[in-house]
Amino acid sequence: MHADARKTLEDPLVIGGQAFGSRLLVGTGKYRDFAQTRAAIEASGAEIVTVAIRRTNIGQNPDEPSLLDVLPPSRYTLLPNTAGCYTAAEAVRTLRLARELLDGHDLVKLEVLGDRETLYPDMPETLKAAGQLVKEGFRVMVYCADDPIQARVLEEIGCVAIMPLASLIGSGMGILNPWNLGLIVERATVPVIVDAGVGTASDAAIAMELGCDGVLMNTAIAAAGDPPRMADAMAKAVVAGREAFLAGRMPRKFYAASPSSPTTGLIG
Question: Angle at CA 48, nearest 5°, toward 192 and 189?
Fold first, then answer.
């Protein structure tokens, strides 16, 4: 894969017609408290913040602290997600609720899980939910397997971003199948955002070097020893990986057939 020479580091990430400066997307779960959540997300520089509607209060429980008090929609683009949903019907119902709670907000993250232990996506249910949500006017960003064929089908359905896993949710195992990700990136005409499995900054950089348009993460930051510091590291890694992709890496080869320094005109 080679970057388009006309692209620059300053080019925005455009999802569903909406432009963003940061290519790092972050989650809001697993932090010690809302204060730590805010500190880490501020350090990340992220503009898109994903929220598990079934697990986080954004107004559905008026007598409890709301995430919106520390992450106001005036500053961040909230991305309601369907974490914890195992059927298409559950996922569609959850995102309809999110649209009500957020005054018609239609940019959402769909995930339909197929297994409670691995949290691997159920692709038949994901396809079913994606089709219904697109019909209802949602702009759907979709968590999926790293399968180029399924990714193509989701794009044809009308999803505005494809979000293949790098490895299992919360595993921190990094990118286990760069070849599949590369195929998805090559063929997609909508943004490809790695979702799940990132463990440290080098994983984020590799995703961007592969040509992905962004990286979404939660556990890698929230479970770090110092979440705000890790968030800052992730932000730098995403930028570095993007710049390396745009620059174009040297070819890989088994040995250096030609030295990097000249062999003619040497002194002595």
Answer: 20
pTM above 0.85, yes or no: yes
At 159, list the tokens. 């999803």
The secondary structure of 61-127, three-state, reads CCCCCCHHHCCCCCCCEEEEECCCCCCHHHHHHHHHHHHHHCCCCCEEEECCECCCCCCCECHHHHH
Angle at 177 between CA 171 and CA 183, to 5 degrees: 135
Contact 194, 164 (CB under 8 A): yes
Burial class of 148 by CB neighbour count within 10 A (0 to 12, 13 to 18, 19+): buried
The per-residue pLDDT string of the chain (268 residues; one tens digit each, 9 = 90 and over) reads 455 656 777 899 999 999 999 999 999 988 998 899 999 999 999 999 998 887 777 767 777 777 787 888 889 999 999 999 999 999 999 999 999 888 888 999 999 999 999 999 999 999 999 999 999 999 999 999 999 999 999 999 999 999 999 999 999 999 999 999 999 999 999 999 999 999 999 999 999 999 999 999 999 999 999 999 999 999 999 999 999 999 998 888 887 666 666 656 666 6
Catalytic residue among 109, 128, 135, 253: 109
Active-site annotation holds for 7: no
The partner residues of 77 in beta bridges, in order of sequence, read: 48
Residues across the chain: 268
The CA distance from 193 to 212, in Å, is 6
Q: Which two tokens stand for residue 148?
A: 């180029």
217 token code pair: 């993460």
Give CA 250 to chain center in angstroms: 27
